[in-house]
Amino acid sequence: MIENYFSADDILEFRIWMRYADRFVVISHMAPDGDAIGSSLAMCRYLKSHGKEAVVIVPDPAPDFLMWLPGADDIIVFGSAPDKAEKLVYKADVVCCLDFNVVKRIDNIASSFLYTKAKKIMIDHHPYPGATFDVTLSHPEASSTSELIFHLICALGDFSRIDREMAECIYTGMMTDTGAFTYNSNNASLFRVVSRLIDMGIDKDVIYRRVYSNYSEDRMRLQGYVLNEKMQVFPEMSTAIITLTQDELDRFHARKGDTEGFVNLPLQIKGISLSIFMREDRELGKIRLSFRSVGSVPCNILASDWFHGGGHVNASGAQYDGTLEEVIARFHEAMKAWKKSDSESIKQLFRKKQKKR
Ligand code: MN
Fold first, then answer.
1. Residue 308 C-alpha to ligand 1 middle, in angstroms?
2. Which domains occur in the chain, in start order?
3. Distance 33 CA to ligand 1 centre (A)
4. pLDDT for the residue numbered 317
5. In sequence order, what are the beta bridge partners of 234?
6. Ligand 1 ion local residues (Cβ < 5 A)
């Protein structure tokens, strides 16, 4: 049996909208990942199976390794077609907000989203959901938003409408948000969902290769450079960092998404439980930071208290207004505070520091 995250009461309003609304827009977060795109495409296809008008809108393009997903060619990128996208959001009866918890995550879609009179349903697994939504289905304990879409469709009594294409989208989101089921996935119910998806005819091995074995030569060489020259390990703090300047990224002709996954690499070193990746982003004019940790090390506290970021306990992000040198200096300051503390819990340490400021 598959335990469902949703009761009939949870989705009562959505059920009513499904009955009376015609125009649906599905939106997801900037720099969309496998879960954002997978959950959105599955939802869109499901809505269309009910004869609804439905379209997926994201702030900026999805990475190449997701463009094979069924329906990906029909995704509207707000940045590339702002007028068209804006009109669709204004005219929508219902906007489904997938895989994000606060409006700032949808970047350039935010103003039309806030202006539209459409009903807004949020389906997401990030902690601390914002209050902008008419219906909030927030389950931080779920592996992915894609898994939640599976449960939503089942709770609506439509398991039989899930076809192979939808199953491929849902599986891709579940796989990418769990590092191919290597973290945040120790849950038997999740594998019962996977087994249903395989029953529907997906080929999980093919999906894995399409997503993870899709690098350019430049990207592989950039990874070699990063590990050899740019990774600093601080064994006494169980921590490692990787830094990259825009010039270095240019030297390897880095394209969007090429640095994806770098932050996870240091965690493969024995004894390392915290990893931070910092890179210059010329377009953004800021430093992008990614944080990953293992077990009870709360990298989201480090991200929020020191870098104005946030996220999950083991996976967080931040954008820092300053130079790479400043961010690195700030990291060392944080580590110094950590070292000085006699508390075993990094969490308490960073909380203490925050109070002092
Ligand atoms: Mn997600």
1. 20
2. 12-212 (3.90.1640.10), 218-356 (3.10.310.30)
3. 8
4. 94
5. 239
6. 35, 99, 144-145, 177
